[in-house]
Design a protein that fits this description.
374 residues, alpha/beta, Aspartate Aminotransferase, domain 2, Aspartate Aminotransferase, domain 1, seven-stranded mixed sheet, four-stranded antiparallel sheet, 14 strands, globular, binds pyridoxal-5'-phosphate, Aminotransferase class I/II-fold pyridoxal phosphate-dependent enzyme, PyrdxlP-dep_Trfase_small, transaminase activity, PyrdxlP-dep_Trfase, pyridoxal phosphate
Length: 374
C-alpha cells in the first residue's frame, strides 16, 4: 500500500553516517546538511529536523506560545497528527469543513470559525493537493492569526510556482516510512522568522543554549538523529525522481479510470503542481457506494486500499461527535464516506494499477446491476 524507494545511493550515505557520524563536528553533520538544503529548496530561512512531523507541529505551537484558552482551527479531514499537538498544548481544537474539490480546508468555513480566541489555522495540503493559499493567507492576515502549513503530504507540490512548505508563519513535513522521502521516522519544521526559530531550537533540546548544560526552562527533547538525517539527505537528493514516480502512479490510475464516469482523483487545477503523495479516489453519488463497501470488496479479492481520512470529530479520540460534526462539516462527512486511498507505494507497477482499477470497475458494475435488478 505504501513504502519508500531505497537504493544503493542511500546506503552509501547511511553507511558513512554509521561509520563516521559520531564525534565532534561529524555528530550532527548530516542533520545540518539536510536542514540547510531542505530549507534552501523551499526558500525558507530556517529549519529544524525533529523525530517526526507530529513533534514538529508540537514544537511550533509551543514556540508560538499557543496554550490553554487559545483556539486553533484545523480541517475536519486530515491525519490526527495535524490536530493532536493542539491538545498537547491544552489549547482548543476547532474543526472546519473542507473544500469539495481539493479536500483541503474551505476558506469560508475557516473564516466562520475565527473568534477572538483564535491564534492559528493549520492548513493541510491533503494527499499532495494544494488549497488556494492566497485566499487562506489573506483571511489569516485580516484576522491577525497565524497560518501554519501542514505540508506532511505535499513535498514537491506547488501553488502558483511557490513550493508547498513556503506558506504561512511556518510549515512542517513528515519523513515517515510511508511518505515521499523517508528517514524511517522524521520531520522538519521550516520558517523565516529568526526569533521563532531561536525559540523553537531552544525548546527542541531541553531548554538550554547549545553546548551548555545549564537549563533555563523545562522543555522537550525533540532532537533528530544523524543516522536518520543521512537517509533523509540522500533521499532528498533524489527528490525529483521520487516525485516523478508518485505522479506516474497518479497518471496511470487516471488513464485506467478514463472510461469510468463520476469518479474524482486528486485535482491539479491551473497554477498547481500536485506531487500526489497518495492517489485518493472519490466515488460520485451515482455509484451509490460507501468506502467501507468498496474496501471490503477489494479486501475479499486480496487487494489493498485504505480509507480516506475520517472526519476527526467522528472519532472516539475527539468524542465521537458525528451528529454535530455532520452539521458543521457536511462536505467532509459526505466525501469521507465515499472515498478511498489507492496504493501509493514506490514499488507499485503498471500491472498492479490496472488490476486494482479493473477490479474497482467490476465492483461498481455489480452494484449498478443489483440496483437495476431490484
Ligand atoms: C497531514 C499529516 N500531518 C502530520 C503527519 C504526522 O507525521 P508523523 O507521522 O511524521 O508524525 C502526517 C503523517 O503521518 C500527515 O499525513
Amino acid at each position: 500500500m505504501a513504502g519508500p524507494w531505497i537504493t544503493d545511493f542511500e546506503e552509501k550515505f547511511v553507511l558513512d553516517a554509521l561509520r563516521n557520524g559520531w564525534y565532534g563536528k561529524n555528530a550532527y553533520a548530516y542533520v545540518e546538511k539536510f536542514e540547510y538544503e531542505f530549507a534552501n529548496y523551499h526558500d525558507r530561512k530556517y529549519s529544524l529536523m525533529t523525530p517526526n512531523c507530529t513533534t514538529s507541529i508540537h514544537l511550533l505551537l509551543a514556540g508560538l506560545g499557543i496554550q490553554d484558552g487559545d483556539e486553533v482551527i484545523v480541517p475536519e479531514c486530515t491525519w490526527i497528527a495535524s490536530a493532536a499537538p493542539i491538545t498537547y498544548q491544552r489549547a482548543t481544537t476547532v474543526f472546519a469543513d473542507i473544500d469539495p474539490i481539493n479536500w483541503c480546508i474551505d476558506p469560508i468555513a475557516m473564516e466562520e470559525k475565527i473568534t477572538s480566541k483564535t491564534k492559528a489555522v493549520i492548513v493541510v495540503d491533503l494527499y499532495g493537493n494544494m488549497p488556494n493559499m492566497d485566499v487562506l493567507q489573506s483571511i489569516c492576515d485580516k484576522h491577525q492569526i497565524y497560518l501554519i502549513e501542514d505540508a506532511a503530504e505535499s513535498l514537491g507540490s506547488k501553488f502558483k510556482n511557490t513550493r508547498a512548505g513556503k506558506f504561512g508563519i511556518a510549515s512542517v513535513f513528515s519523513f515517515h516510512r510511508t511518505k515521499t522521502i523517508t528517514t524511517g521516522e522524521g520531520g522538519m519544521l521550516l520558517m523565516d522568522d529568526e526569533n521563532l526559530y531561536k525559540r523553537c531550537k531552544f525548546l527542541r533540546d531541553h531548554g538550554r543554549a547549545p553546548g551548555t548544560y545549564f537549563n533555563t526552562e523545562i522543555t522537550f527533547k525533540y532532537m533528530p538523529s544523524n543516522l536518520a538525517a543521512s537517509l533523509g539527505y540522500a533521499q532528498f537528493l533524489r527528490i525529483e525522481e521520487l516525485v516523478a514516480k508518485k505522479r506516474w502512479i497518479w497518471q496511470k490510475f487516471k488513464e485506467s479510470f478514463i472510461d469510468l464516469p463520476d469518479i474524482y482523483l486528486n485535482p491539479e487545477p491551473e497554477g498547481v503542481v500536485n506531487s500526489v503523495w497518495c492517489t485518493a479516489l472519490v466515488f460520485g453519488k451515482s455509484h451509490s457506494v460507501t468506502k467501507d463497501y468498496v474496501m471490503n470488496e477489494l479486501n475479499r479479492l486480496g487487494l489493498p486500499s485504505r480509507p480516506f481520512f475520517y472526519p476527526l470529530t467522528s472519532l472516539p479520540a475527539f468524542g465521537s461527535k458525528s451528529e454535530e460534526g455532520r452539521i458543521n462539516s457536511p462536505i467532509a462527512y459526505d466525501i469521507s464516506e465515499r472515498a478511498i486511498n489507492l496504493p501509493c507505494a514506490f514499488n507499485v507497477n503498471e500491472e498492479q494499477i490496472k488490476l486494482i482499477s479493473e477490479t474497482i470497475k467490476l465492483v461498481l458494475k455489480n452494484v449498478h446491476k443489483n440496483m437495476v435488478n431490484k
